[in-house]
Amino acid sequence: MSASNNIEKVVIIGSGPAGWTAALYAARANLSPLVYPGRAVSKDLVPGGQLMLTTDVENYPGFPEGINGQEMMDLFFKQAMRFDTRVVTNDGVATEVSAGLYSQFQGAHSIDLSKRPFAIKGDDGYDCLAHSVIVSTGAKANWLGLENELRLAQSGGGVSACAVCDGALPVFRDKVLAVVGGGDSAVEEATYLTKFASKVYMIHRRDKLRASKIMADRALENPKLEVLWNKGVVDVLGDESITAVKLKDTVTGEESTVELSGLFLAIGHTPASDFLNGQLELDAKKYIKLADPYRSTTSVEGIFAAGDCVDSVYRQAVTAAGMGCKAAIDAERWLADQGIE
Ligand code: NAP
Question: From atom 19 of ligand 1, which residue's Cα is the shortest distance away?
């Protein structure tokens, strides 16, 4: 695969709401951004990010009827491509939207930040040099890894890793639901679900919550919420939609089945920051540290970061898009300061 001899002004790595928004802004600033969107090969690295695993998105402003997550990312992509955005594919660089392009998308395999311009290696051999880079690689929700869990999550069968994204859907109204995990996310998501569900179980593998005391106490007082202590999910039952989970007691080993209509995983997220190979400052949980919390600057000048790879708190499409916008504006101003226009 050939490589670009030009030095790119802005390279964007990742193609969720943050990446495409950064591309849109950078393209409209005449920076002709080059995007490594990621490969369409696995659940982990899916281009378009976590929204590609969501069915209906009802909380993104501007879509009063809601929109399918994949359709929404398709619209983000096309809007960025309407201006001068270029995308790295297995066949080189695409400048126009065409049928089947998604399956050709290429990701960034590694990046060398030790010298300028920065050197980026593509997954399938398309390499380039860049004056500035926007990292928007996202964070993937952790899953238990059970076959039926992943199958029903991908088919929209009532298994999700985001209660805030999916919990308010009509299919979950007045139903028995469950959240797996015992951290702040699990408590927050279980509490949120009690607004719609008839009952919410929290399934936790220990006899003590990890969540902050104030949030845990509030959840434990909620009459619609019941914690199933010392329980692990060992199977998810249901053909087209989830009907029950099979649990195993982590102390006694005893197995039981709980009937329900929705399962929400809240067992943490893993930011996609490994490919940076320690060259950018990360926090203890591997999220990219921003040099200034109000900007998108990082520990290396010329490298900007946006979206879920810097955000362990909000993790929403709308917040990621906002950060993508900030990163493109920061990159544009930094390039102008360097005399690169
Ligand atoms: P977290 O604090 O890492 O908690 C993950 C939970 O999932 C833990 O209870 C853990 O069990 C459980 N878990 C992990 N792997 C599991 C597995 N394979 N099987 C079953 N259970 C598993 O993650 P988080 O709740 O997403 O929170 C991430 C960060 O964001 C935290 O710093 C949190 O305080 C913060 N946060 C804050 C708020 C807020 O303040 N409003 C809201 C959400 C998140 P163990 O307890 O046994 O390890």
Answer: 144
The reply to whether 57 and 95 lie within a common domain is: yes
66 lines ligand 1 (CB under 6 A): no
Residues labelled as active-site residues = 162, 165-166
pLDDT in tens, 95-115: 999 888 888 888 999 999 999
List, for residues 194-213, the tens digit of each pLDDT value: 999 999 999 999 999 999 99
| Structural domains in the chain (count) | 2
Distance CA 156, CA 230 (A): 28
Q: Are residues 243 and 294 in the same domain?
A: no
Ligand 1 close to Cβ of residue 120 (< 6 A):
no
129, 118 Cβ separation under 8 angstroms: yes
Say if CB 196 and CB 280 are below 8 A apart: no
Peptide bond into 223 cis (omega under 30): no
Residue 41 Cα to ligand 1 middle (Å): 28
